[in-house]
Amino acid sequence: MNQTASSVVTDGIALITLDNPPVNALSAPLRQALQSELDRAFRDDQVHAIMLICAGRTFIAGADITEFGQPWQSPSLPDLCAMLDAAPKPVIAAIHGTALGGGFELALACHYRVVAASARVGLPEVNLGLLPGAGGTQRVPRVVGAKAALDIVTSGRQIKAKEALSLGLVDAIADDPSLQSEALAFARRVVADGAAKPRIKDRTDAIEGDRNAPDLFTTFATTNARRFKGFPAPGAIIEAVQAAVMLDFDDGLAKETALFEQLVASPESAAQRHVFFAEREAARVPDIGPETTAIDIAAVGVIGAGTMGGGITMNFLNAGIPVTLVETSQEALDRGIATIRRNYEATASKGRMTGQQVEQRMALISPSLELGALAHADLVIEAVYESMDVKTDIFARLDRIAKPGAILASNTSFLNLDRIAAATSRPEWVVGLHFFSPANVMRLLEVVRGAATAKPVVATAMRLAKRIGKVAVLSGVCDGFIANRLLAPRGTQAEAMMLEGTPIEAIDRVLVDYGFAMGHFQMMDLVGLDVIGRNATERTVMGDLVAAGRLGQKRGAGYYDYDEKRRPHASDLTATLISEVAAAASVAHSPTVGDEAILARLLYPVVNEGARILEEGIALRASDIDIAAVLGYNWPVYRGGPLFWADQVGLGKIVADMRRLEALHGETFRPAPLLVRLAEGGKRFGDRS
Ligand code: CAA
User: Fold this and answer.
1) Which residues of 383-399 are buried (b: 16+ CB within 10 A; e: fewer)?
2) Are residues 226 and 110 part of one domain?
3) Cβ of 98 less than 6 Å from ligand 1
4) Residue 447 sits in the same domain as residue 573
């Protein structure tokens, strides 16, 4: 890889260009090259100012994340920032694309920052379970004050050029194409003015007031407690920003470094970094390279305007792609379109969209009651009721209507895609596009590759996912595909433990303590027991609850009783029903005791199912399974997904525990052959990725 810094001197200005594709991450070789270029420019009497600029698509995207966890190589990023702090001549950063993390920190250590109009700056380290470790937590508050700094650093949000200018984080905005020339002109003015060089590290004006507001930090922590729960980074960021306010710059920096070292060694950060790379890895399909041409998708058709069809449609509207939306009745069509509009208007009312944008998106919908309206579509997605008969009928009709070269996709969540494809004369054009509900929000898209699906069709689906803001994970054909199949055993075990007498509150609390947003039974109550329990044949607790009118949160009662603030409380009636159903099914009273034991019962079968999915080749790699769980089921990102977590627990321990559980609870706990092989070989899932 080309990792260089080069410089030319013109008119007394040293123009140092960093070039480390694809995103100019500050790897050790690049840091070394930058250090020597700076050193040379500092010593060169012909040089009166220095400009830092990047080649390629962006300014520096931050530290090189692949180096974390390895021994640090000199110079470190803080060393480079210290070098800039001591620079004998003005240094100007010229920023295009994004200046993120260590990249923005380096820019903040320069005297001036000139940004392209489309550029963004930010400190996204929190998303990797880290804090900015090269002065970001010390410099940003000195510019914007503690309150705004807390928001910027704990959210990791990207700040647009205009906002950055108004906050004082940058000094000037240039037109995109003329960034270099405008920044050079800026540098020349600086030299000509001979003005005192502004140093953020010496400023205290913005934090003066914060010294007398000690509550600021505790209030911020309390207000955001829910959002920060389980993540160690936000707390550390708050501490570091407080240090910026209370200590002098060098002591604050030392505090920041100590906190950074703690975070980088934490399992949470390791998990979040795993997820960062796993998300990008998921896009790669071994037998499909860049030479496989994707099909241009300019017009989409969606069949079914229900909850899924509507959500799916919104993804394409958001990306500016027109959608023909087909339903069987005018009423269903009107209802579906009204729901889409209501969703957009809700977004607009929160100020996250303009009224004009709402109208632009709505105008991209062409409603129709005829499948024939899909004749021109490049991609048709079927999102109707989960019935093989209904779906094969639709695909057979679609086969006669769709133009040659159109991709025919099903949003089925568990039916056999190959059977659906067999209803057409062109199974190679059929693919599964499994969205997760709410489809306009959840970032996972399972791309299901059937036995006949052609490579360009898979390539198109994978690339299209990125275009509509989704992360695609490739799945083979099986019941439930990756995410649903993976998580199903968790629900089965929760319900089995319930019948054995483990309190549902304990089961839910263990899941919430692990990091899920809610427990299994709270989730059932939220979705609605009448919706989930529709097909039950034998007597179940859920069926009895429905019969008693306890349909879930919407009725104020389901597994739990809900108060007016929708907080769950244990219900005596539910407890009685559970005992009755257990007695009727002859389930012996043998509650699982202890959080660790409950967690093992709930999650080891998930790990086991993951091993099977991997071994059967349904998923390409272990990290894809983690991504499916994190993005499809909100598996806590700081646990890294089920297989990353299993590696942390130790596969040997999991196999041993499962063998014990198998003796008690049967086959579900028989360790999958792959799990056993990895454990016996002292290996981890991560070693296979
Ligand atoms: N280090 C190493 N590799 C990185 C990287 C980084 N900081 N940022 C991106 N990459 C890699 C990606 O893994 C990807 O590699 P592959 O092509 O091999 O998959 C490649 O660069 C392109 O990345 P994207 O696919 O994400 O490209 P994009 O155009 O969609 O997004 C981006 C570009 C906005 C910069 C995005 O990559 C991103 O958000 N990167 C991470 C930024 C970040 O978190 N920086 C902080 C680093 S931590 C730090 O700096 C700590 C400190 O203070 C000392």
Assistant:
1) bbeeeeeebbebbebbb
2) yes
3) yes
4) no
Judged against a pLDDT cut of 60, whether residue 2 lies above it is answered with no
- The CA 164 to ligand 1 mean position distance, Å, reads 21
Count of beta carbons in the 10 Å neighbourhood of residue 362: 14
CB 382 within 8 A of CB 304: yes
Q: Which string of DSSP letters, residue by residue, matches 84-104?
A: HHT-SS-EEEEE-SEEETHHH
CB atoms within 10 A of CB 516: 21
Question: Which atom, in ligand 1's list, is nearest to the CA of 66?
Answer: 2
Q: What is the ipTM, given to two decimal places?
A: 0.92
If one counts the domains in the chain, the total is 3
Tens of pLDDT, residues 504-541: 999 999 999 999 999 999 999 998 898 776 666 788 99
Domain that holds residue 537: 503-585
| 528/471 same-domain check | no
Q: Which pair of tokens denotes residue 239?
A: 């501490």
Ligand 1 centroid–CA 280 distance in Å is: 10
Cβ–ligand 1 contact at 325 (below 6 Å): no
- What integer best gives the mean pLDDT of the chain? 95
Q: Is the beta carbon of 102 within 6 A of some atom in ligand 1?
A: yes
Q: In sequence order, which residues have a C-beta less than 8 Å from that of residue 159 and are 6 or more positions away?
A: 120, 121, 122, 152, 167, 169
Residue 556 sits in a domain whose CATH number is: 1.10.1040.50
- Best mutation site among 2, 58, 65, 468 for ligand 1 pocket (most ligand atoms within 8 Å of CB): 65
> Is ligand 1 within 6 A of the CB of residue 198?
no
DSSP-assigned states of every residue in 430-468:
EEEEEE-SSTTT--EEEEE--SS--HHHHHHHHHHHHHT
Instruction: Tell me: do 567 and 458 sit in the same domain.
Output: no
Ligand 1 touching residue 78 (CB < 6 A): no
* First-last CA distance in the chain: 22
Cite the active site residues.
105, 125
**Ligand 1 atom 33 nearest Cα:** 23
Mean pLDDT of 65-87: 91
- Please, which residues have CB within 8 angstroms of residue 284's CB and are 6 or more apart in sequence? none
